[in-house]
Amino acid sequence: MAQNVAIYDTTLRDGTQAENFNLSLEDKLRITLKFDELGIDFVEGGWPGSNPKDVEYFKEIRKYELKHTKVTAFGSTRLFANPAEQDGNLNALIAAKTPGITIFGKTWDIHVHDALRIELADNLLIIEESLKYLRPHVQYLTYDAEHFFDGFKANPEYAYATLDRAIAGGADCLALCETNGGTLPTELSAIIDAVKAHLKAKKSTIQFGIHAHNDSECAVANSLIAVSMGATQVQGTANGFGERCGNANLTSIMPALALKMGYGFTAAPNLHRLTEVSHFVSELANLSPNKYQPYVGQSAFAHKGGIHVSAVQRNPLTYEHMVPEKVGNVRRVLISDLSGKSNVLVKAKKMGLDLDSKDPVVSAIVKELKDLENQGFQYEGAEASFELLMRRAMGTPKKYFDLHGFRVMSQKTPDGVLQEEATIRLAVGGEEVHTAALGNGPVNALDKSLRKALTRFYPNLKEMELRDYKVRVLASEHGTEARVRVLIESRDQDSMWGTVGVSPDIIEASWQALVDSITYKLMKDEQNRK
Amino acid sequence: MAQNVAIYDTTLRDGTQAENFNLSLEDKLRITLKFDELGIDFVEGGWPGSNPKDVEYFKEIRKYELKHTKVTAFGSTRLFANPAEQDGNLNALIAAKTPGITIFGKTWDIHVHDALRIELADNLLIIEESLKYLRPHVQYLTYDAEHFFDGFKANPEYAYATLDRAIAGGADCLALCETNGGTLPTELSAIIDAVKAHLKAKKSTIQFGIHAHNDSECAVANSLIAVSMGATQVQGTANGFGERCGNANLTSIMPALALKMGYGFTAAPNLHRLTEVSHFVSELANLSPNKYQPYVGQSAFAHKGGIHVSAVQRNPLTYEHMVPEKVGNVRRVLISDLSGKSNVLVKAKKMGLDLDSKDPVVSAIVKELKDLENQGFQYEGAEASFELLMRRAMGTPKKYFDLHGFRVMSQKTPDGVLQEEATIRLAVGGEEVHTAALGNGPVNALDKSLRKALTRFYPNLKEMELRDYKVRVLASEHGTEARVRVLIESRDQDSMWGTVGVSPDIIEASWQALVDSITYKLMKDEQNRK
């Protein structure tokens, strides 16, 4: 398919302006390589003139050979006081030695007066001169017309003039920036039409792009509309990370362009990896992925309502706007308040349990489920605990040990050192063990002592490890007395499973999830031996 | 201003299809009253035919006198097998005794065949007959044309026919439903134009509405475009809660319609309460509000980048698309990785600290901040810990007690009972106390023993309480050894404050946040006494 639009990612620059979104140098390098694998056309890596971490990034990224991505350095027009060749910011861009450079300049007269505090004519001058100075040093030069839409609404003639000077300066592309995110789709197209008319009148064939923000929750729509009107560069970030309410979400824009609108770009054939890449970025930023996120969210193809579930079983098209696998996502059927028998049966089948809808066990499970959910249990991330619940209702599985008691002690000495110790007494088939372990926190100490005690009897527990431990406070009105939900994710060489525990006491909630996790591992191995 | 569009909220019905979004009967009643205060025109309360909890809701809500809101019951067209007067679902709608009823019917031929499994003509029949039967019993009757846009793309003539029969059945409004959320703004308007032309040709003056889902991240844009094309009813949910990726977000649609597009509706003059109402719904559902949410999110008017901060100081318009107070939100300046001195100075001023940008203390604070943030500290929700950090850098505040040590013990007996006890030794002005307390979990026990020890010396601690206790696991790769961040929110009669602690050990992290919280309270009271 023809390559008729370029994907320009600014997660590493504009994205890091987001609250709670911080990336280390290492993270930025790994994300760049991941985007190159996916086939992103431009990766804006940072602002070398403003941030030493970014200078470091450009030095490091040059050591890697990228298959496709054009790494791009971002910066502002020169200071009016400086001649271009003496402007630190412009020279930092050249020093970054990137195939792409993007320069932003002011479009909006109030910015020229209030932010730069210079004359309108002087702003036009620094736009043209900054670009002219950079032009010979770079392969692809983008001009970001900051606040273009607000500037246009305030003073269209001046907005045009800034574009004209960027063209004169030698820009390859004019990115129209909807910086404050306030422009609605109902006003956007008229402005783009006017710009196209202006460029036509000037007989300019320069390409234009779109850079939108999500303050009106319209960034994706505005970007798609702009591309449909001829924009050939679309700027945004992974998962829409960005200042305030975020940038245009490329994770939603790319599948719409490729799978719904028929546009071509290098990443288009790789969108079956979109979910993986989206979660990769969230994990490196240590943010849990947004489960409601379009296309890639855990809930994006999840079905809860009873009717939906049965309809989707018959024909997925009925309640899904696309095939989840095309973006690397999967269909999920949720266990929940609304869950009727049909949901439970679907789940059972997935677990290889053969249940009949008339079997009284099914109603019993649905009832127990509702009770547990009222206590705050959630099985959406704890399939293993749910399977154990079902199997217990069906009389299996066996109990692998009897707890006689445990004790967890945290002691802080006057010198401020805190130490945890857990002791546990349990019996397997009549034989009792009494062990102790130190730990890094009370739950870790308990976890270690429990495994130490059980590994004697079940050596295969050595294969499993706890991968993730999440705590959520349920009712927020009781301070430290609130109920907590603990979610534990475990894995061994061939699978991963989640378990859950709920209690006002974090030790008790963790204990429940730990015991479920170990029980699940032992049960799974027994079945595999069969 | 003329009332030219009706706001139709389905948080209580379609919204509750969202994963992790569950509301009790009590919650649903409280939300209805809150929406009535705000001036929402229609509140779709539930589906009495499908859910006993909803029958209860309609019985209860009738006991309240609402100022403005038309409570609406939702249901499907009758089963083909039943005559209307014997259809349980339709009679449940009548029994709900609501001023509004909304019936959904099938538009899309594959649904008629695969979901209903009846003939196309039979579907037309049940649409008309169901509406005719309900018409005399209700003040406002809406027809939800389910999957209208997908149905239209597949078979426009049949889609028109379903609308014609809904008109014949006596509907007041035809809500065009974008049920699967797959239709893009670039295709929506052509379909709406065609529908308008069809209605015109039929000489029908019936009103039409829009019901959009967010699977393509375009629900808000699609809704705004539809209203701009003449839709007089816009359906959606608070915060966009809803199945999969959510429904159209009324919390973003209302401010755009009223404050940007100039439409009139009853809630328009009350939008300064929008943030309050948005958070109210999240809190009742026990979900933490989405901080990046447009208009009402904590980050929606937050500024992180150094330049932005100084520009916003001079002229808020430069980086804000609207005045935050119009939607009940506020501007925030963030302390963060990118935070330069200017951010710190702004914060200091807010705290009444008079700092000079040349004061070496400022650079010291910025440096300490970066170190702590690298350890995982976040001050965005912990202003009190940040103030203490600043004051410590400036030599205040004094130390209110010396810790000699504490011990927290969790003991589980063979009968499964878990009990926590904390003992603590500390001294105030040379006088030592040694106390103990039982608690509901280790942190709660520690909290109680600490207060017990200190209240003897500082009786004003009785006025404060812990309101919220949040735990976040930072690095997710080390199971129970991961670092945790604890956020504590405290309050007394006249203020609220947040404090933070970080450690691989939840006891240690909690201890840090507890001590900051108490220190802040004591310092605050001292200053007020001055």
What features would you describe in this structure?
The structure is a homodimer of 530-residue chains. By secondary structure, chain A is an alpha/beta fold. Chain A folds into 3 domains: 6-284, TIM Barrel (Alpha-Beta Barrel); 302-375, no CATH class; 402-529, Alpha-isopropylmalate synthase LeuA, regulatory domain (Double Stranded RNA Binding Domain, 2-Layer Sandwich), CATH 3.30.160.270. The first copy, chain A, contains 17 helices and 16 strands. Chain A has an 8-stranded parallel beta barrel, surrounded by 8 helices. The first copy, chain A, has a 3-stranded antiparallel β-sheet with strand order 11-12-13, covered by helices on one side. A 3-stranded antiparallel β-sheet of chain A has the order 14-15-16. In chain A, helix 1 (25-38) packs across helix 2 (52-61), helix 1 (25-38) runs antiparallel to helix 11 (274-284) and helix 6 crosses helix 7. The longest helix of chain A is centred in the C-terminal third of the chain and has 24 residues, at 506-529. The first copy, chain A, is elongated. Chains A and B meet through helix 4, helix 9, helix 10, strand 9 and helix 12 of A and helix 4, helix 9, helix 10, strand 9 and helix 12 of B.
